[in-house]
Amino acid sequence: MFQTVGQPVPRKEGREKVTGEAKYVDDLKFPGMLHGATVRSPVARGRIRGIDFPPGLPWDEFTIVTANDIPGENVVALIVDDQPYLAAECVNHPEEPVVLLAHSDKYLVEKARGAVRLDIELVPAIFTIEDSLAKKQVVWGDDNIFKSFLVEKGDVDSIWAEAAHIVEGEYRTGAQEQLYIETNGVIAVANAQDGITIWGSMQCPYYIHKALLKAFPLAPEKIRVIQMETGGGFGGKEEYPSMIAGHAALLAWKSGRPVKMIYDRAEDMAATTKRHPSRTRMKAAVSREGKLLAIDMEFIVDGGAYATLSSVVLSRGTIHAGGPYVCPNVRIRSKAVATNAPPHGAFRGFGAPQSIFALERHMNKVARAVGLTPEEFRRRNFLHRGETTATGQEIREPVNLERLLDRALELSDYHAKTKAFAQHNQRSGVKRGIGFATFMHGAGFTGSGERYLQSIAGVEAQADGHVRILVSSTEIGQGTNTILAQIAAETLRVVYDQIEISRPDTSRVPNSGPTVASRTCMVVGKLVESAAIGLKQTLVKAGFLTENYRVQEFADACARYIGEFGPLKSFSQYQAPPGIFWDDDTYRGDAYGAFAWAVYVAEVAVDTATCEIKVEDFVALQEVGRVIHPVLAAGQIEGGVAQGIGFAVFENVVWKDGRMANNQMTNYIMPTSVDVPRIRVYFEEIPYEYGPLGAKGIGELPIDGPAPAVLNAIENALGVSVDEIPLLPEMLMEEAGVA
Amino acid sequence: MEFRVNGGSRRLEVYPMERLLDVLREEIGLTGTKEGCGEGECGACSVLVDGLLVNSCLVPVLQVDRCEILTVEGLAKNGHLHPLQEAFAKTGGAQCGICTPGMILASYQLLARWPHPTEDQIREGLAGNLCRCTGYQKIFDAVRQASEA
Amino acid sequence: MRAYVPEYDLVAPASLKEALRLVADQARPMAGGTDLMVLFEAGTLPYRRLVSLWRIPELRGISTGETHMTLGALTTYTEIQQSGIMQDEFPLLVKAASWTGAVATQNRGTLAGNIANASPAADSPPALLVYDAEIELLSSSGSRWVPYAGFHTGYKTSVMQPDEIIGHIRLPRTTAGCVQYLRKVGTRRAQAIAKVALAGMAKTSGAVVERIRIALASVAPMPIRCAQTETVLAGRTIDRAAIEKAMATIALEIAPISDVRSTQDYRRRVTVNLLQEFLETLLA
């Protein structure tokens, strides 16, 4: 059916990546370049009394920047604008940046960074959700609350009295470090005359652009942000790069020299954002027949010391908290609260992995209370077309979750294994179990978010028939370059190799929005498709092509058009699909244009001698609209599942006085090649009308399912219900009371 | 001191405790080898020294005096990619690409040791190279494909 | 990278004699560097003058004697794994070597480095302890052999004098007919630091224990042999009662702590369970 889409075409920048030619920011060197370093607060909260530069170092050779040197506003522009680039009078979290240094000798600048002494008068700090809610200290605003939401459907309080079963539970998720293998880094060139140019590792060039606009007195055209090859993002390079870019720019501005700033791993882990820790309390009322009657949920996330993106993380987590179920009465009370940890931020899933973990664990608990198997309970409560979600969004796509569940259970041999394991566990110290999670993930910005972004994508044809895609969407490994090229090639009916894609450079490409929220394929891809259609129509209207042109005719037509009229470009701006209504005040309506739907099944083995948990098999089945590139799509799922397994049973942030104590890769444990099973990925396609060639977004979906599936499997194996992740052997041994 | 990199001889004046990783990247300009952690945990800095895989972030340059070093830049011959490079590109073994040079060299040593490795041997041979993007699945496929080439 | 590189000196003498002279003059020895360089990069290596032993021929090689295997200090984990005799007679050391870091670490990490670095979590020591290893210490003034069992004296302290380096490690070839056991519990299945590791070796005659060795990592300030637990079992018939008694003894003999990787309680429970697992192989 399709020529390019659905084919495993070569990755656009694949050759460079396997030869080592791909250029990441640290691979660049500029003449006269200085190296930058950040002096950070060693304490969680306090008043800065002084900064000491001890003798023994040639301080006059250094460029030194403090808050006073910021020519514009000392704020990292994002949503609430509460976070300073550099702490001026007080610090609110460990690792908060206070002083910047630059020198041409990268070893000396590091030595100097360690020598600077900050004199800080301690002020009591808070580190837990409980302390924040209790206002043990008020560390942000009047009440420590960055944002709160109330979602109501029906009337939950009218249900409790008559419900056959009421099931309560509390669930917790810990912080998770994105752990991209390339740390954060930028190079900045900056002065008042020429403006600022930033090269860096990033997901969102225009976020940096917006932030620098506020910190420097420059016109927008004077700020240029260029994305280099980026070694992983996962959300960790969504908003954070604005901070490091501003720092490098400040040093460049003051010194008059290019400044390179690359974090080492220890700094990156301790100072930059992590997934928001969460606490969810659930109360569900169920009928005798196992139908959900009411869900009352309190969902709290710890945002750290500044607001950054907490309101949006809370939003997505809140909206996803209801899951793929029909429930006539729902109340979700959610809050993002402040503590004195380094601000938490974007990480793939963005609130949904947290609330979905709680929901899917709770559904199993409810099933047990009612005397149903987890799968039967799901079947009795799944959403169908025409029914509404917790926010009142009517499902307009054909979705068949029962069939998806059946297929996933078959692919994983779920029923036979459940029986076999029950037998096996009676005789063995290694307990085996199998469990699943059913969930969905909305692609694109929530509600009116995409309208607010007003993203633009463009295509430009050359005289030789090559077409260049113009977007600010970044390739960070997920395949942006490749799939957008496929969509353009398919739409223009030319060969894949004719499509090029520009390096995102804000002076050269329009703002197609941030590379986040599973929107690049579905939203930006659609814009690329529209722009390509526009290009085609321009040529047809101009008489250089007929409607059914052949690929060989395209180049010719471009040459003739350009020869006669000049540049051949086409741009498309976002328009919401018809019939999408979202109310920001009541938080009701159509939260997302489309959901991808999934059932994930995990099989585990737990050695009761040590409580080590091994995921032995994993089935990931999802309905995604259209698979644009089979290898890249599967790659997204596999990578997301591995991160989800990490979230569930490996990755633990050890906190000491608000600081990450295990900020080294030797002590923050992500899975190695030996720790992951074969992850078996299956796709179904029900084309989404408003997606490019029917595609929906899938980037975040795969990290939502693994944690609850794995914990459900562990419960199946041991008969022990654990409601907190990461679930490490130490905790499991205590909970299970084994040995 | 003097050593050979990708078949070519290099004579350098460097601090003895400078990391081999930094000498390769800064002094010699071979930026294909990457820094991921500076602790010998992630393997992004892997190179071969006298045929053996090492984490170049943990090797003081003095200790490779008179050695033969192979980096990712030395794999392709006359513009023709090594079968491992072809395989990584084709199977989706490279996503963001930052772990890829080290991963390919680890695979190179793996195949030298086990030309037809089992899946367990592939996993074990790559256990010191962390990848955050792929979940390793397509990296296993890439090594398998290269072993059959 | 937090070290100020210009202020470090590393020299690579060609001869053992020269190396020992430098060590006597307070230069710190470096073998493969896999431990020292991590500290260096974290900015916490306290030494500025180092001497590389990496190329010294006298410190390399595995030699097979009639009664002993002798391993040069610079024997790498890779070389240990590749040795046929090591695989046959000292499989626990081969296993430990295969679990130390991963391939790249194993190509550079050395047995002496592992011993001298003296981490309580090190992978080789439990095997070396059950094998009754002996360590040769060299200095400009001579050499001496010490039993590894008494080598460690506390957390990161040992009987090594400041002017000494490890020359060789000697293992008596007395493992024939012994049941051998080694299990490491790490933070993950590869490239992990041990939360607990237990090595066990026993020679039985019928069901009676003639000789038994039990050693552990990560449950004390240094690698330890569990002499009390061994005493409980030596000369005894291995039955349920003996196993229970041994488990109770080992629980009190160790001194685990809670740290960034694990908890005291977990380490204790796992130690007891691993001992049980080992002793049950003797039951059969």
Note down, in words, how this protein is organized.
The complex is a heterotrimer of chains A (about 750), B (about 150) and C (about 280). Chain A has three domains: about 15-20 and about 455-575, Aldehyde oxidase/xanthine dehydrogenase, molybdopterin binding domain (Aldehyde Oxidoreductase, domain 4), CATH 3.30.365; about 30-125 and about 185-260, Aldehyde Oxidoreductase, domain 3, CATH 3.90.1170.50; about 280-445 and about 585-735, Aldehyde oxidase/xanthine dehydrogenase, molybdopterin binding domain (Aldehyde Oxidoreductase, domain 4, 2-Layer Sandwich), CATH 3.30.365. Chain A has 19 helices and 28 strands. In chain A, a hairpin with a 5-residue loop joins β13 (about 280-285) and β14. In chain A, α7 (about 310-320) runs parallel beside α8 and α8 packs parallel to α18 (about 705-720). The longest helix of chain A has 22 residues, at about 520-540. Chain A is globular, with a radius of gyration of 26 Å. The mean pLDDT of chain A is about 95. With about 150 residues, chain B is of the alpha+beta class. Helices cover about 35% and strands about 15% of the residues of chain B. Chain B has five helices and five strands, in the order ββαβββαααα. Chain B has helices at about 20-25, 85-90, 100-115, 120-125, 135-149; strands at about 1-5, 10, 45-50, 50-55, 70. In chain B, a hairpin with a 2-residue loop joins β1 and β2 (about 10). The model of chain B has no long low-confidence stretch (mean pLDDT about 95). Chain C is of the alpha+beta class and about 280 residues long. Chain C has three domains: about 5-50; about 55-170, Uridine Diphospho-n-acetylenolpyruvylglucosamine Reductase, domain 3, CATH 3.30.465; about 180-285, Enolase-like, domain 1. Chain C contains eleven helices and 14 strands. In chain C, the strands form four sheets. Chain C has a five-stranded antiparallel beta sheet. A four-stranded antiparallel beta sheet of chain C has the order 11-12-13-14, sandwiched between helices. In chain C, β11 (about 180-185) and β12 (about 195-205) form a beta hairpin. In chain C, about 55% of the residues are buried. The chains are: A alpha+beta (about 750), B alpha+beta (about 150), C alpha+beta (about 280). The interface between A and B is large, with 57 and 55 residues.
